[in-house]
Write a structure and sequence with these properties.
- This protein is mostly helical.
- It has 2 domains: about 350 residues, no CATH class; about 70 residues, no CATH class.
- It has 20 helices and 4 strands.
- Strand 2 and strand 3 form a beta hairpin.
- It starts with a helix and ends with a helix.
Length: about 425
């Protein structure tokens, strides 16, 4: 049985082993477990019960990770997306006064459309249309994005009304704990310890607990609370023509966030074939679409691929076993979610900073001497962290790539699909620019 599993998950081809894959799955889960608490706190503002959304978050994440691992065989974890959950609550439910049941219906419809587009091969065409030179730029941009989140969560940087950002309070116990965790992980990696990320996160949590910096205040919770949101979506209401724009936003952001994460993680893990294509891409997109529809049925916003998957890849994860382990842990979390609240952000922030640093190595793959390549690449990698959106970074880079090819007389090298996508990106920029 073991040999058969290893053949299915391509252990020999990818140089994988069980110990490393399991540790990578643990690392990914611990790094992204914050979503179990952050997602319910956001969706609660739309009137959704916290306990129910907590259970829905765990269940939807478990199903998404298991699908990605078993079906697509990639080390990519899925969970309700940050950004899309804020759009769900503040733009749709509160801004447009749409009931959360109807908003869940819109998320479900976007997932169904994803399935249709995947079956028709359209999502695959879009993925193949991304210029190869932007692959490395996306990986670098997501690295900067991850590191930026880590610096913010650690308190190393903070918002400032005059300069937007400034140095945080480095004497804060929370920040000192994060800095000690950063040093611990970096030292372990320098000693080539494969479980450096996981040991660093758990070790920092232990130090924080001993220093009285870990505050655990579990709220009343039971997996049975899921009934308050399970199958409560209102699809007929979501079919109202006035909500088509909402469905499109869920579609657009999810599509390009997932593509960006897939490109970045695949580039870091070396999962592409010799021609730069992504094997089993149809299965990846199918798993993602099913996860989104399942999430809506459970009672949570759009499920997406997580950039924190890169932490597991850095820890050595190469196969779907990494995602499966993460999924199993999310499944266990359905029953013990409050216990996971003991892991502070000061413990996970150092891991994000280290992952971001390692992903910057892909900048060397960009042909910086060629303006047609380097300018779109730069716009991609800088827009991702500055706009807090992978989709925006891809949009900037993609549009710049097309326009520069046209203005430099190389318009024949651009396919019709690239022109079409560029037009959609420009329309999106126009819409976003006039929305406020």
């Amino acid at each position: 049985m073991r040999t058969r599993l290893e053949r299915y998950f391509l252990f020999a081809e990818l140089g994988a082993d069980w110990r490393t894959e399991i540790l990578a799955g643990l690392t990914t889960f611990v790094t992204m477990a914050y979503i179990i608490f952050v997602n319910p706190s956001i969706l609660h503002d739309a009137g959704m019960p916290v306990a129910a959304v907590t259970a829905a978050t765990c269940l939807a994440s478990a199903i998404g990770c298991l699908l990605m691992g078993a079906l697509a065989r990639y080390p990519i974890a899925l969970a309700p997306g940050m950004g899309l959950n804020a759009y769900f609550v503040y733009s749709v439910c509160i801004g447009l006064k749409v009931p959360w049941q109807t908003a869940l219906g819109a998320v479900f419809l976007s997932g169904v459309i994803f399935l249709i587009l995947t079956a028709a091969g359209i999502r695959q065409l879009i993925l193949e249309a991304i210029p190869r030179e932007l692959y490395s730029a996306v990986a670098v941009g997501i690295g900067l994005f991850i590191a930026f989140i880590g610096f913010r969560n650690a308190g190393i940087i903070r918002a400032d009304p005059a300069t937007l950002l400034t140095l945080g309070n480095l004497r804060s116990p929370h920040t000192l704990l994060a800095l000690s965790g950063l040093l611990l992980i970096a030292t372990l990696m320098a000693w080539n310890v494969r479980a450096a990320m996981l040991i660093g996160i758990l070790g920092t949590t232990l130090v924080g607990a001993l220093a009285g910096l870990v505050h655990w205040n579990p709220q009343p919770y039971s997996p049975a609370d899921l009934s308050a949101t399970f199958l409560q979506l209102d699809i007929p209401a979501a079919l109202n023509l006035g909500l088509l724009e909402i469905v499109f936003v869920f579609l657009f952001v999810d599509l390009f966030d997932n593509i960006g994460t897939l490109v970045a993680v695949g580039t870091r893990a070396g999962l592409f074939d010799r021609d730069g294509h992504i094997p089993r891409v149809n299965r990846i997109l199918t798993a993602d679409a099913i996860a989104t529809t399942t999430g809506a049925l459970c009672g949570t916003s759009t499920v997406v691929s997580y950039i924190e998957s890169a932490a597991g890849v850095v820890a050595g994860g190469r196969t779907g076993i990494t995602a499966i382990v993460c999924g199993l842990l999310f499944g266990i979390a359905v029953f013990i979610a409050p216990l996971l609240g003991v892991i502070p952000s000061a413990a996970t922030a150092p891991a994000l900073i280290i992952v971001g640093a390692l992903m910057l190595s892909h900048a060397a793959e960009i042909e910086w001497s060629s303006p047609v390549v380097s300018i779109p690449a730069f716009l991609t990698l800088i827009a991702i962290p500055l706009t807090f959106s992978i989709a925006n970074g891809l949009a900037f880079g993609f549009t710049a790539h097309t326009l520069l090819r046209v203005f430099s007389g190389e318009w024949k090298k651009v396919s019709w699909l690239v022109y079409l996508l560029t037009a959609l990106f420009l329309l999106r920029f126009f819409y976003l620019g006039t929305a406020g």
